[in-house]
Amino acid sequence: MTGRFPDFVIIGAMKCATSTLHSQLEAQPAFCMSRPKEPNFFSDADRWARGLDWYRGLFAAAAPGDLCGESSTHYTKLPTLPDALPRLKAHMPNAKLIYIMRHPVDRLVSHYSHGWLERAIDGPIDEAIERHPELVDYGRYAMQIGPWLEAFGPASVLPVFMERLSRSPQPELERICRFLGYTAMPVWNDLLDGENASGNRLRDSRWRDAIVYHPLVTAIRRNLVPQAWRDRIKKGWQMTEKPVLRAEALARVTAVFDADLALLGEMLGTRMTCATFRAVVLERTLEWSISNSSPELGGGPSEGWWRGDPT
Hints:
CATH superfamily of the largest domain: P-loop containing nucleotide triphosphate hydrolases
Distance between the termini: 45 Å
């Protein structure tokens, strides 16, 4: 085979600053990060069909001694994509894994905005959570990360929180690099902040792009249409206001998230709810309170202690 397998994988969660961390690690010496950022190799059928040579080839440019990594949030998208864990475990049993979390309601809103911009989701957010259960499921962190802890052991999975990464980026980057076995001193690059932000993106539209970005139309637009008019037109394709869940819908998703956060808190040796989430994750660095020898991690997947159904 050509290339090599990576040393670590950022496995999620979606809309939790995985792109930002990927870019920050890529900026450090002796790191080789995949391009594309999200290969989704172990989760997506079309990527898996490309074969191990294709995947290993993503790291063919790595120099001897480089730490290689990739970032695929599809790996923690249960129940939508169930194949990532067994496939990754079979080929990379000693991989180190990073799982980033944020307040689950904030993640849900960001996920909805992302889906709306990509035309994968339509309608108001309150209706979308009924039609798209993944908006809630991908933020049930205990449910998502539990199988990985059981398969790889807590020592191989680093919990990271977006809120803490945003407030104390340099110390958090140092903690992440120590976990990965990086011996140099990493430096957080503020110029890379804000990657993958949705605020200024335009909603996907093939016909609009085909017309607007035609060379002739581009020349006319830039030379004859005032900037104020162009900005006004663009707003019709942007999500200019942050979506807000109505009280009833917010109460429903909060109940689901609180039940999951109770399990996550047990894993981390603390207590957390949606109401206390930010304070808890900012108060101190959280690590798994369970060990590889914990009886809870001894059962097979069907007996996993992480299996709770808050719904």
